[in-house]
Design a protein that fits this description.
Two copies of one chain form a homodimer.
Chain A: H1 13-16, H2 33-46, H3 49-60, E1 66-67, H4 68-72, H5 79-91, E2 95-100, E3 103-108, H6 110-124
Antiparallel strand pairs in A: 1-3, 2-3
Chain A binds a DNA duplex through helix 4 and helix 5.
Chain lengths: 125, 125
DNA sequence: GCTCGTCATAGACAGCCATCAATACAGGCG
DNA sequence: CGCCTGTATTGATGGCTGTCTATGACGAGC
């Protein structure tokens, strides 16, 4: 996963790890409570303007990697607050991090975003 | 990687695809605060297990319409609580309602779901 | 060793939110 | 009209959450 955080990303991996036909489709049939809770965690992570802008800043960056110092400087918030938001996104499986020397670099997890996107598109269809 | 951490191009990453699509793309360029707030409202609406199950129940229903009484009976929650969640989903533009006689019927707004789905899929690359 | 810079964590606190009970509103039916 | 049923709104409350300050952990370099 990332630096030395405990391996506890249940959100997406648990569900995506299943067979291709058992993915919760949100509207093909009513989802159960545990699936709803797992999916809600990811949407909740996206449900904050700061975190959305963080995702946007990371994804827009050429190379797909941004170090925390650049992210912090893009907001009128303290560094611990940004770190807190990054942790929530990371625990939702939407981003992950890698330390190189002094700096920590974050990047998106495309599979997670793609999966949520497909979920909504399928619900629309 | 340069020796010192220089203020790299934080805002210039954009403007590459000046195609016809002018919607906030989340990743083609960093989104501004107002777009982030608007999008966050929708994701926040989806970021609750009860509301996700409500969307699922409505979308899974044959005909695409569900009356509130059926939704209420699907949860161990009081009717005002369900009504509260429906209001949040409605204000996010994800569902809308129609009164027919005594009952109120809710249905999904596919365009809204599709738009959020495309947003995430595009961000996935 | 020590110090500095970068990032994460802990603790505190204010504001928000999910939930409930009580109440109000709206429509059908006597 | 009055009564009943189905929904929405109000007000209260406990828990969650976004933010801060203070501090700790890690790496680089003197």
């Amino acid at each position: 996963m990332s630096i030395q955080h405990a391996p506890r990303d249940l959100g997406l991996v648990a569900v995506t790890g299943l067979g291709a036909c058992t993915r919760p489709a949100l509207v093909s049939e009513p989802i159960d409570e545990s699936s709803a809770a797992a999916l809600a965690q990811v949407f909740k992570a996206l449900g904050d303007p700061v975190r959305l802008r963080l995702v946007s800043l990371i994804g827009a960056r050429q190379g797909g990697e941004v170090c925390v110092c650049d992210l912090t400087s893009a907001f009128a918030l303290t560094q611990p607050t940004i770190s807190h938001h990054l942790k929530i996104l990371r625990e939702a499986g939407l981003i992950d991090s890698q330390r190189r020397g002094t700096w920590v670099y974050y990047r998106l997890v495309p599979a997670a975003l793609e999966r949520m996107g497909e979920l909504l598109s399928a619900a629309a269809g």
